[in-house]
Amino acid sequence: MTAGDRTPGPLLAREPDEAPSEAAQHRAELIEEDRYGQPEVLQGPFNTRQLLRLDEALRTADRATGLTFSVYVGELEEPVRDHAERMHQQLPNVASAVLIAVSPNQRVLEVVTGGDARRRIPDRDAKLAALSMVAAFGGGDLAGGIISGLDQLATRAGRS
Question: Which segments cross the bilayer (predicted)?
Answer without folding.
Answer: 128-150
